[in-house]
Amino acid sequence: MRPRLNSLAARLLLASALLLPLFLGTTGAYLERSHRLSIEAAQAERLQLQLRALLAQAEFEDALELPQRLIEGRLAQVNSGIYAFVTDATGAPQWVSPSALQLDPAAVLAGIPPLASGGQDISRFQDLQRASLQVLWQTDRGAEVPLRFTVLETTAPIEAEVSQYRRRLLLWLGGSGLLLLGCQVAILVWGLRPLRELAADIGRIESGASTSLERVYPREVRDLTGNLNTLLKGEEQRRERVRNTMADLAHSLKTPLAVIRSANPDQADYPALVGEQTDRMEQIVAWQLQRTASGSHRLLQRVPVAPVAQRLRDSLAKVYSLQAPVIELQVESGCHFRGDERDLLEIMGNLMDNACKYGGNHVRIRAEGAGDLTITIEDNGPGVAPALRAAILERGFRADSRGGGHGLGLSVAADIAASYQGRLSIDSSELGGALIRVQFAQPG
């Protein structure tokens, strides 16, 4: 099993440590080659100047003559590193510089291709750079004598300079590499600091010193921190909901228990009264359990709204087949809900059921927004009086005051929407009845 690097900093540093030598080595090789080519080009240019200088000093009548004191003094020194030859058409030496007396002309001049008059050749012979110039010398008597001037210079100074340049290059590039690695370490320490702060903040939440992630984090981790805050807030709301449910359950059961306790068992309607109050208690318990369970979210799940709305419309069309309501769907493409699909079903199911039950025969459902989601459900019924719009959403409002049914649908929808940091509001519809709007500010 291959070992893993579980540290982001270690991975980035390892990648830098592997890539930097490759990049700097390639750069160093390219710079060294460019430097060598420039030095060799300068040497070739110097050799061509030496050829022209020799040509300017040469005299030819019956034989080639060159002065003993040449412009380039090193040609008069044995093994000075610069050498000169003048050969005829057959390649036989006509003149050899004193510096080249220990060299074999045939070996040194071998490999030079034939040249036309005025032609030049730059080539390499072992550790010597070689330059040749072919001329057609016209004597005062009108004779034309072909001569080839050749100058050679050792490449040892070039190799020494390249070697010194390589050492300097290695020093500078190596130092730059170490400096870059140091900068990389500093950048990693600075760049990963928000993650360390996030870990510290989570530790404070675990210890109870904080209840949420309140720091402003970088954009790259903002979705993560937003979802964590949603999870933390949902958990806090769940605990609060459990406490409220227990209190509400105890309070709600007092009335049916008191009715049963105060009833006379000898009366004829006692069994019916007990049955009625038992059904009431079962409804209360089921409702409170439903409220408790409705706060569990599955974060990061993207639920398409259109299939859910279509499924609910088909179900309600069967339930209210006698009324034959017209249920109109207007759901934007790409519209989705971030959370548990069951919560979306509960919200839309309760609101659509209320619209079909208490509205007229026309219900319109709209959903819009690929990011922040807005769902509106309208009907052409009597609507909701403005004085009751806030009251029917308040926790603890008695269902008895709402007329038929238990009046729990809006409360369920409002509680679930609130657990997702959503908001439910009531308004008047263009259809003439009520308009229920649910808005969610969802993480990206």
Automatic annotation (TrEMBL):
<dbReference type="Pfam" id="PF02518">
    <property type="entry name" value="HATPase_c"/>
</dbReference>
<feature type="domain" description="Histidine kinase">
    <location>
        <begin position="248"/>
        <end position="444"/>
    </location>
</feature>
<feature type="transmembrane region" description="Helical">
    <location>
        <begin position="169"/>
        <end position="192"/>
    </location>
</feature>
<dbReference type="InterPro" id="IPR003660">
    <property type="entry name" value="HAMP_dom"/>
</dbReference>
<dbReference type="GO" id="GO:0005524">
    <property type="term" value="F:ATP binding"/>
</dbReference>
<keyword id="KW-0902">Two-component regulatory system</keyword>
<dbReference type="InterPro" id="IPR036890">
    <property type="entry name" value="HATPase_C_sf"/>
</dbReference>
<keyword id="KW-0597">Phosphoprotein</keyword>
<keyword id="KW-0418">Kinase</keyword>
<keyword id="KW-1133">Transmembrane helix</keyword>
<dbReference type="InterPro" id="IPR005467">
    <property type="entry name" value="His_kinase_dom"/>
</dbReference>
<protein>
    <recommendedName>
        <fullName>histidine kinase</fullName>
        <ecNumber>2.7.13.3</ecNumber>
    </recommendedName>
</protein>
<keyword id="KW-0808">Transferase</keyword>
<dbReference type="InterPro" id="IPR003594">
    <property type="entry name" value="HATPase_dom"/>
</dbReference>
<keyword id="KW-0812">Transmembrane</keyword>
<feature type="domain" description="HAMP">
    <location>
        <begin position="189"/>
        <end position="240"/>
    </location>
</feature>
<dbReference type="InterPro" id="IPR036097">
    <property type="entry name" value="HisK_dim/P_sf"/>
</dbReference>
<dbReference type="GO" id="GO:0000155">
    <property type="term" value="F:phosphorelay sensor kinase activity"/>
</dbReference>
<dbReference type="GO" id="GO:0005886">
    <property type="term" value="C:plasma membrane"/>
</dbReference>
<dbReference type="InterPro" id="IPR003661">
    <property type="entry name" value="HisK_dim/P_dom"/>
</dbReference>
<keyword id="KW-0472">Membrane</keyword>
<dbReference type="InterPro" id="IPR050428">
    <property type="entry name" value="TCS_sensor_his_kinase"/>
</dbReference>
<dbReference type="InterPro" id="IPR004358">
    <property type="entry name" value="Sig_transdc_His_kin-like_C"/>
</dbReference>
